Structures are given as structure tokens and as C-alpha cells.
Amino acid sequence: MIQPDRPVTEDDLQAWVDGFLSPERLRTVENWLESHPETLRRVMTWRDERDALRKGLEPELREPVPARFGISNLRQRRGRHSNMPRMAASIALALSIGFGSGWFLRDRRVPVGLAAVEQEAAIVREASKGSTMTESNVAQLAAWGGKALGRPVQPPDLSAAGYHLVGGQLVTTDHGPACVFFYNDDSGARISLFVRPMYGVDVTAPMRPMRHLPGYLWAQNGLGVSMVADTSISSLHALADHARDLMAKAS
Amino acid sequence: MTLRKAKTELTDDAHIRLQAAIPALRRYARVLTRDPSQADDLVQDCLERALTRLHQVRGQPDLRAWLFTIAHRLNVNHWRRFRRVVSWGETTPPEPLQEAGQIPHLEWQEVVHAFGRLSDDHRQIMMLVGVEGLQYGVVAEILDLPIGTVMSRLSRARAALHSLVEHEERPTLRRVK
């Protein structure tokens, strides 16, 4: 049980300013403040500044809300695939990849093998959010990807597991071109599958979890592959196994 | 039929709660991004995500904390990285937001100005605790921090704000000496 007369702490002073003290604790703290006028002045100033900040920032709440934030507009936008956002996203992607490599080069060590695939997949996943090609273009993407990667690339069909292919992109990395495919399930949860050829290192490698993202990483038949989820999904490991099996069958 | 109707009503109610929280979300997004148009892009991202997850907040009257959590994560994961890319040459933080006709009263202006000069972490905590009045535990969840860190950061933020306000009030007096 909390002693109402335990010594007054810095946290109590913050809670005094914010009005979060229980009535008993408030009495104790205020008694203590009476005999510490210096601290009393300090907390009163904090409270005054908090009030001033509230008043000063209050007009922002009264600004008219732009029409784009109306529910129906948000709905429409989600279903729309126009060229402009895609183009903007591609530029962002290109910049991010440039930025990413520059950033990693600062460490004077460009990772190789699966470690490199892991970094690239992470960057691409961040940079390409909300930018996907339409499904009808995926076949073309696979063809481009096949050409660019120098070998056929086919996104595995994960619909049996509830994930439907919604798009993909051809991207460039420090280690040449790569394909990234996006899948959604019915609740809107998204995963991405990043694929690129491996050169010399980790041409085949067992599956392992990614270090900083909910995802798995492996290499098969000279392709480095990673599967990343936007939010952690308990079935992700099984889904990655499934994708690996399907890709092994296809090749 | 009735089930469908009940579901529609539930969704409508959720939409109303979502709309009600938008002004606060925009204000928080401006704290996160320091740029009104980037802030609105973040708000849009956040609302689109929220729309697909409204089932998570069934029966929750105030959606602010939930939306702030989404906005904070989006900002950490995506926008911050993107912003580093696009604002390559930016060195000085922009002035705090003030639009014509919305200039605060003079006594508040100093504090708002000082607030704009705080670090990102300090501005966030002052906004969530001081301005929005959210409980410490809620803020700890939004920022994904232990509560002890929230408390110490809050204490430092208040001290920093006060010293900026003090400093701004009498710069000339100090120089006269």
C-alpha cells in the first residue's frame, strides 16, 4: 500500500502541475510545498506556462478540417491508384535507397550476403508504403524483373494462406536490381516479399528471423528472399515456409 | 437485417468519434513534423490506417490517444526517414506555426515561441501531457517508453521550456550589464 506521507518526489511535483494527485497525496504535497517556497514558485511557474501553452495552441483546434479528411474522401483515396502518388513514391524510393546506401557506407562496411538483403528489404519496405502497381501489371513486372535479374521471377501465389498479391515494384539496390511484391489479407494486413539474386555469398542459406523487423529471410537457388509484415503476424513463419516451398517448386 | 443496421450504426458512431479527434491529431502531427503540409500528409496516412482498424476501439469514446499512437509510430517508421531524405540541407528548425488571425495573445506568445524551440522529444511530451492532458501511463504507451522515462523527460522538458521563456523575456537587460 502506498504511504500517503512518504517523502515528496520530483514525480509528485509533476503530478501536482498536471492535477493527477489523489486527494490525500495532494494534501501531503501541498503541506510540504508550504515549507519549501522556492519549489512552490517553480511548480506554479510550470503550471502557468502549461496554461499559457494550452491557450496559445488552442486556436489550432479551431481551424477548419480540410475536406480530404472526410471519411468518404479517405475511402475514395484508398481505393484509387493514380500515377502521381506512385511516381512520387518511386522518387522517394530512389532517394531512400540512395540515402540508405550512403548511410550504410558511413559505417565503411557495406554488408554482403543475407545481411545486405536484410537491409535492402527494410529500406524498400519503408520507402514503398502506399505505392503499388495494379495487379494487371504484375505479370509485366515479373517479366521485367526476370530480365533485370537475369532469371525468371514469379511471385508465389499465397492466396491459399489468405494473402492476395496486390502489386509490386522493380527496385535497384547496392547489389543490382531486385523485385518486391506486396500482398494483403482480407483485414488489410500487408506483407512484402523482396527478391534478388545472390552473388557468391549466401547463395543458399537457411531461414532466419530478421533482426529489426517482423520478417524472415532466406536464400534459395541463388535468390535472396525476405518476407516482411507491416505488423507482427503470428503465422508469418509458416507463411514464409509456404512461400519458400512454392518458389522451390516453381524453379 | 437488424444486425447489418446495428453494424452500420456502430461504424457511423466510430466515424463521428474519428472526425472529432482530427483537430487534435493535426495539432500533434505538426509537433511531430514541424511542417503543416507534411503534418497533414501524416494525418491522412494515419486516418487511412485508422479506418481499417476501427474495430480495435469499439466503445472507446476518446480516440485521441489511439490516433496519437498510430501517428507516432508512422512518424518514427516512415516520415522521419523520408524527411531526412527530402530536407537534406535543413539546419535551423522553422519558426513555430502561426497563421494570420491566429497569433496568440501576447502573454502566451512567449511560451508558444519557446515551445517551438524545444527539442522534438520535449515538444512531444509537453503536447501530450501538458496540452492534451493525457495520463502518464497513456503517454508512455503512445511514445513506447517506460513510465520512468516519461516522468524524467517531462521534468526536463518543463525546465527547458521555462529557461527558454526566461531567456526570451529579458535578453536586453542581460546585455546592459
How do you describe this structure in short?
The complex is a heterodimer of chains A (251) and B (177). With 251 residues, chain A is α+β, with helices and mostly antiparallel strands.
Summarize the structure in words:
The complex is a heterodimer of chains A (251) and B (177). With 251 residues, chain A is an alpha+beta fold. Helices cover 47% and strands 18% of the residues of chain A. Chain A has helices spanning 10-18, 23-34, 37-57, 71-79, 83-106, 113-127, 138-149, 236-250; strands at 164-173, 176-184, 190-197, 205-209, 215-220, 223-229. In chain A, strands 1-2-3-6-5-4 form a 6-stranded antiparallel sheet, with helices on both faces. In chain A, helix 1 packs across helix 3 (37-57) and helix 5 runs antiparallel to helix 6 (113-127). Chain A is elongated. Residues 80-110 of chain A have low confidence and may be disordered. The longest helix of chain B has 32 residues, at 2-33. Chain B has 8 helices and no strands. The relative contact order of chain B is 0.10. By secondary structure, chain B is mostly helical. Chains A and B meet through helix 1, helix 3, helix 4 and helix 5 of A and helix 1, helix 2, helix 3, helix 4 and helix 5 of B.
Q: Distance between termini of chain A? A: 66 Å
Shape of chain B: globular
Task: Give, in order, the helices and strands of chain A.
Answer: HHHHHHHEEEEEEH
Largest sheet of chain B: none
Structural class of chain A: alpha+beta
User: What does the overall shape of chain A look like?
Assistant: elongated
Helical segment count of chain B: 8
Cα Rg of chain B:
19 Å
Unreliable parts of chain B: 83-104, 170-177
Give the tally of β-strands of chain A.
6
Mean pLDDT of chain B, nearest integer?
A: 79
Q: Report the helical percentage of chain A.
A: 40-55%
Q: Count of helices of chain A? A: 8
Helix content of chain B: over 70%
Mean pLDDT of chain A: 75
Biggest interchain interface, per-side counts: A-B, 43 and 50 residues
